[in-house]
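Retro notes (design track)

What went well: tokenization of the new backbones is finally stable.
What didn't: we kept losing track of which sequence belonged to which structure.
Fix going forward: every design gets posted as structure first, then sequence, in one message. First example under the new rule, 668 residues:
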């Protein structure tokens, strides 16, 4: 029997809608939903490959347990009983704080996966980790300092006259902390109605659509923004907005005073006329929208750059105003009506790394190996994540994992991390679970969308809520998943206490329930009714940020047909599968005698990787790029977990100095 089912993709926060053709519980085709009001018939190569990913030959169908050093297939009861026995022993000997959990990026958009936090709360362990602290740690930090809420996301208004995209390539990634369904349509709208500025050391696919492209030295973008804030405060600021709605303006003015034209040109390595042209464009536009991506958030000066983007929108009177920046209150969280309690979510960090904070109730991932080495962490759950590829200092992390008494990995398919597990549990994939868009506030529209399971789980695949409930029963801990939960919907329903419409209304709607766009709602909920542009800790970083004068730096990069560590095998584009290659400017390659496709060594004091060279004119001289997420050329062999921001806990995973040379002949 052939049926068609509506659903939405959860590979990223764009949540593009699609229609799946299903025959005998197999997905035979996926096509974009042309009638969806949000994604408007758009879907990328990765989303189109969801069916092939679901039926991948490396899908996990049964539990595995390490026996005599090897992972062997076992029955569910055997795996769960063994996990519970080891957990009980660890709790009795070391306390529940010796048990940790790490969640990967796929655990964020899939609502029912978030039960892991309730399980950890029931255990009473603070050992909580997620990819937030190795991806966009600066975003919640800056938002919290400016607004009192870490969940505020500034994005360029769809009608802004000047959109500024920094270190982000939505034509490939679709966004970062702000996602853009059908990105080309929005980018062209910005370019056609005003100006679209792309700031990136590479002439990206997004830059090709821009009206202006600036290629500063990676990591120096704070100086570009600092100079613009300095000059706008001198001439062009929205004085009424500042006087009535901004706090800390004098401290901001003092912090950016150092960014003269000469100093900004020195730091960014941009010509002076490029900087003055940027400032002139801001004055022409009046209101602007600024958004940053992983090109910024993974760098050493992420906090300063991210904050100065907010500051520039503040001094131009653009924050939460039409034609400037837009803040999505969220259909589910409904911030416009509910507001928020101002908070500081920074707390003490792990015992092994007192130099680092906890943030948002999580320890920073940079401390994970330290906690294991110190004996503070004896057991770790990994939920839909691949930390071997995502976290810094890979060699040290692998050695630390080997010291754990228990490493339980819940995953849908084999990864670089599953090989390290003591227990491997086959989870349901996104097409085997019902879901709802709880993270719609990352989008340019306020909406909610529900999707029922496209296919039923087969073999031994089980939902995470079932696994945690079964483990909780065996160790005598309330997992937070009651016996009344028999379906994903039972987990999701309580997650919508403040939504604009109830769960059943959203569930029964054949398409997205769209609530429109709301401006001017933020100010009434701000502490004192003002945007805080004078946070002392961020301004201290702005005032001291500098560049190290490196001759060559490595930047992160997104790829069109893969997402993080998935689809490396050409699943999304079999004709041209993505490969780990070092992208290098032709002049740099010629100076080093490197030819196209030749094996080169990229190294830091921490380690090295060997990869083929790809000569790429899109990069400015001195900048090379190697994408994250490849096992055979893992960028994180080059990174150091000790090189970590003291405010956010974010390790430096991009825009760091490297040395490049031909691979030595004695190292094939």
């Amino acid at each position: 029997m052939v049926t068609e089912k509506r659903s939405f993709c959860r590979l990223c926060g764009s949540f593009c809608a699609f229609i799946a053709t299903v025959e005998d519980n197999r997905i035979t085709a996926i096509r974009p939903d042309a009638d969806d009001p949000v994604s408007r018939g758009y879907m990328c190569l990765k989303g189109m490959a969801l069916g092939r990913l679901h039926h991948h030959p490396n899908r996990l169908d049964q539990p595995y347990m390490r026996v005599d050093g090897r992972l062997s297939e076992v029955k569910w009861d055997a795996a769960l009983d063994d996990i519970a026995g080891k957990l009980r022993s660890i709790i009795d000997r070391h306390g529940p704080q010796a048990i940790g959990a790490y969640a990967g990026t796929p655990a964020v958009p899939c609502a029912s996966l978030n039960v892991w936090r309730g399980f950890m709360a029931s255990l009473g362990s603070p050992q909580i980790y997620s990819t937030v602290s190795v991806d966009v740690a600066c975003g919640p930090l800056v938002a919290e300092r400016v607004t009192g809420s870490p969940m505020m996301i500034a994005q360029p208004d769809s009608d802004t006259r000047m959109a500024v995209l920094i270190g982000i390539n939505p034509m490939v990634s679709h966004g970062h902390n702000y996602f853009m369904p059908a990105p080309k349509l929005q980018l062209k709208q910005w370019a056609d109605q005003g100006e679209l500025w792309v700031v990136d050391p590479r002439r990206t696919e997004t830059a090709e659509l821009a009206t202006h492209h600036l290629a500063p030295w990676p990591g120096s973008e704070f100086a570009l923004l600092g100079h613009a804030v300095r000059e706008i405060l001198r001439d062009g600021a929205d004085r009424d907005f500042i006087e009535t709605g901004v706090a800390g303006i004098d401290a901001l003015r003092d912090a950016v005073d150092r960014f003269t034209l000469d100093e900004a040109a020195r730091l960014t390595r941009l010509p002076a006329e490029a900087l003055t042209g940027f400032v002139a464009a801001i004055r022409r536009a009046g209101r602007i929208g600024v958004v940053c991506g992983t090109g910024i958030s993974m760098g050493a000066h992420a906090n300063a750059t991210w904050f100065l983007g907010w500051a520039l929108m503040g001094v131009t009177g653009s924050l939460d105003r039409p034609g400037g920046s837009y803040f999505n209150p969220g259909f589910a969280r409904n911030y416009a009506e509910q507001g928020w309690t101002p908070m500081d979510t920074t707390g003490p960090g792990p015992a092994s790394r007192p130099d680092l904070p906890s943030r948002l109730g999580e320890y920073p991932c940079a401390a994970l190996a330290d906690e294991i080495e110190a004996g503070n962490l004896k057991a770790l759950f990994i939920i839909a994540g691949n930390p071997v590829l995502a976290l810094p200092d890979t060699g040290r992390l692998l050695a630390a994992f080997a010291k754990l008494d228990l490493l339980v990995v819940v995953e849908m398919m084999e990864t670089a991390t599953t090989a390290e597990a003591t227990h491997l549990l086959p989870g349901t994939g996104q097409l085997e679970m019902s879901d709802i868009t709880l993270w719609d506030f990352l989008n340019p529209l306020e909406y909610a969308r529900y999707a029922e399971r496209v296919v039923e789980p087969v073999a031994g695949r089980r939902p995470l809520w079932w696994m945690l409930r079964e483990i909780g029963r065996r160790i005598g801990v309330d997992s937070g998943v009651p016996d009344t939960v028999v379906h994903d919907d039972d987990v999701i329903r309580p997650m919508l206490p403040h939504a604009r419409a109830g769960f059943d209304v959203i569930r029964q709607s054949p398409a997205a329930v769209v609530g429109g766009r709301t401006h001017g709602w933020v100010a009434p909920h701000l502490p004192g009714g003002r945007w805080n542009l004078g946070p002392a800790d961020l301004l201290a970083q702005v005032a001291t940020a500098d560049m190290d004068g490196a001759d060559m730096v490595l930047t992160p990069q997104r790829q069109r047909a893969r997402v993080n560590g998935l689809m490396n095998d050409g699943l999304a584009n079999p004709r041209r599968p993505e490969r780990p290659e070092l992208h290098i400017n032709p002049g740099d390659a010629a100076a080093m005698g490197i030819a196209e496709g030749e094996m080169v060594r990229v190294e830091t004091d921490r380690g090295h990787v060997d990869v083929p060279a790809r000569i790429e004119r899109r990069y400015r001289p001195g900048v090379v790029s190697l994408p994250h997420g490849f096992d055979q050329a893992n960028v994180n062999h080059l990174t150091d977990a000790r090189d970590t921001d003291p405010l956010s806990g974010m390790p430096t995973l991009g825009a760091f100095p490297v040395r490049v040379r031909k691979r030595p002949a004695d190292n094939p």
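Added context from the reviewer: The two ends are 53 Å apart (CA to CA).
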